UniProtKB/TrEMBL annotation:
Species assigned in the record: Cutibacterium equinum
The Mur ligase central domain, residue ranges: 104-308
EC number(s) from the headed UniProt entry: 6.3.2.13
Binding locations of UDP-N-acetyl-alpha-D-muramoyl-L-alanyl-D-glutamate: 21, 23, 151-152, 178, 186
Residue intervals of the Mur ligase C-terminal domain: 330-462
Residues given in the record as ATP binding sites: 106-112
Pathway listed: Cell wall biogenesis; peptidoglycan biosynthesis
Protein name: UDP-N-acetylmuramoyl-L-alanyl-D-glutamate--2,6-diaminopimelate ligase
Residues covered by the Mur ligase N-terminal catalytic domain: 16-89
């Protein structure tokens, strides 16, 4: 067996020029990583990886037995995922070291905060790479890449992205760091200059099993070997817990809050003509920002983004224009339907906490009308959050239309029934709760019910352009469907008038 240090690009071992954990994507010179999977151990495919050009195999003890006849050096480690991440960083030349790294974790707000940080950096003249739910971009332009995960790529892909961004002139990288990525050690080998914690709510318990396990995964981002500075929302009790840990471990702490004393404390906020306007006390003085995003939770996201930017050494004057003009696809995004139409907002909210925040923000835009919520829950995911999702919607909206989200391999009607049960339990007098059926029909129902003064919030999919049904991903963009259904309804209304 070869030692990890002995399998490097020098005269003592094979020259490694790349790394992959997918035997179908091996190129000559690659280190092939054989990981234990749900259905099979990746080391079973070592022979085909070697045939494609792999020059060494990294795996665990079980994988070493399976790959014994591969004919190349086999590196055996107890934790191959962690070793893979460090190896990927080494093979790509530690590209993150040449850029300022911003990492954001939390149940809700990661994407919006990342967009705000990116906008602030770009207004200061920086070249910014972004990695997260909405994709991989450099200075706003999409980078072509085959996505293998929803938010944070696997370590070989991640380090490859860092390298590509650095080669194309990126000075900074802003990325969402998911709890899965931290639990699966995808960011090992990377140190963040500034890491942020937005909040902790109920999500991903199909993977983490308990809220404590979920929190501990996110807490890994705020250890001395992973982050230099942590920016923490101390309105969240888990945030206050993180602060105590970081102070004990020596990580520099910057706090943000709306309700608690903090380094960046929002002292007041109110709805403005474009979004939310707020005042915040900061180490550099009292500041006022007028956002292009609505709601208290976006005030919280913006205060965190400002704290991250100043923690990295930028000034308020450099970043304020970007912070105030930033907009985020699929996050409280308005779908313009023209004159004499209801206000329609699309948001990615798919947890009880996020739904509550989105509907609270939408309520501030309701003037004399009703708030109509359209939402559903994903299949093959944490089933226990479905009832609470319906509950918080019925507590805040005047009309709740339950529909399909991404049902995946589950029966959509069963998923809707669970969300409906929570909604019916919480519905106040006068609140309408209906089963809207399939998503297009539910959107049509909301538009037919709505009057000009009403606000419709279509929640759950946001920027997504596909719907996972069974084993297929069918084309479905809430924004396009809303426009198409409105056009159809408007056409029918016009026909009725001319009869």
């Amino acid at each position: 067996m070869a030692a990890l240090d002995g399998c490097s690009a020098d005269e003592n071992g094979p020259a490694i020029s790349g790394i992959t954990l997918d035997s179908r994507q091996v190129r000559p010179g690659d280190l092939y990583v054989g990981l234990r999977g749900l259905h099979a151990h990746g080391a079973r495919f070592a022979a085909s990886a070697v045939e494609a050009g792999a020059v060494a195999v990294l795996t665990d003890a079980e994988g070493a037995t399976l790959a014994a006849d591969a004919g190349v050096p086999i590196i055996v480690v107890p934790h191959p995922r962690a070793a893979m991440a460090v190896a990927a960083a080494t093979i790509f030349g530690h590209p993150a070291d040449d850029m300022t790294m911003f990492g954001i974790t939390g149940t809700n707000g990661k994407t919006t905060t990342a967009f705000l940080v990116e906008a602030g950096l770009r207004s200061a003249g920086h070249h910014v790479g972004t990695i997260g739910t909405i994709g991989f971009r450099l200075d706003g332009a999409e980078l072509p890449s085959a996505r293998t995960t929803v938010t944070t790529p696997e370590a070989p892909d991640l380090q490859g992205l860092f390298a590509a961004m650095a080669q194309q002139g990126a000075t900074d990288v802003v990325m969402e760091v998911s709890s899965h990525a931290l639990a699966l050690q995808r960011v090992n080998g990377t140190r963040f200059d500034v890491a942020a914690f937005t909040n902790l709510g109920r999500d991903h318990l199909d993977f983490h099993k308990t809220l404590d396990e979920y929190f501990e995964a996110k807490a890994r981002l705020f250890t001395p070997d992973v982050a230099r500075i942590g920016v923490i929302n101390v309105d969240d009790p888990r945030g206050r817990q993180l602060v105590e840990r970081m102070q004990a471990s020596g990580v520099t702490v910057v706090t943000t809050s709306i309700h608690e004393p903090a380094d960046y404390q929002v002292t007041s906020w109110y709805p403005g003509p474009r979004g939310a306007i707020f005042d915040v006390t900061t180490p550099s003085g009292q500041r006022t920002l007028e956002l292009s995003l609505p709601g208290e939770y976006n005030v919280r996201n913006a205060a965190m983004a400002l704290a991250m930017l100043e923690a990295a050494g930028l000034s308020f004057d450099e970043v304020v224009q970007g912070l105030c003009s930033a907009q985020v696809p699929g996050r409280m995004e308005r779908v313009d339907l023209g004159p004499d139409s209801p206000t329609v907002l699309v948001d990615f909210a798919h947890t009880p906490q996020a739904i509550a925040s989105a509907l609270d923000a939408a309520r501030s835009s309701v003037h004399g009308g009703r708030l109509i919520a359209v939402l559903g829950a994903g299949g093959d995911r944490d089933a226990a959050k479905r009832g609470p999702m319906g509950r918080v919607a019925a507590e805040r909206a005047d009309v709740v239309i339950i529909t399909d989200d991404n049902p995946r391999t589950e029966d959509p009607a069963v998923i809707r029934a669970a969300v409906l049960e929570g909604a019916h339990e919480a519905a106040r007098d006068g609140v309408i709760v209906v089963d809207g059926g399939r998503r297009r029909e539910a959107i049509n129902e909301a538009l037919r019910m709505a009057e000009v003064a009403d606000v419709i919030c279509v929640l759950g999919k946001g920027h997504e352009t596909g719907q996972h049904v069974g084993s297929e991903v069918l084309p479905f963009d809430d924004r396009e469907v809303i426009r198409a259904e409105w056009h159809t309804l408007a056409g029918r209304a016009e026909e009725d008038l001319t009869r």
